[in-house]
Amino acid sequence: MKKISALALIILMGLFLAACGCTDSDTTKIDVNSTQPETQNNSPNVTVPEETNSPNTETESENHTQTDSAPKKILVAYFSHTGNTRVIANQIHEKVGGDIFEIVTVNPYPTDYDSVVDQAKQEQEDNYRPQLKTKVENMDSYDVVFIGYPNWWGTMPMPVFTFLEEYDFSGKTIIPFCTHEGSGLGRSVEDITELCPQSTILDGLAIRGSSVKTAQDDVSEWLREIRMTE
Question: Which residue windows does the record flag with biased composition (Polar residues) (predicted)?
Answer without folding.
Answer: 31-46
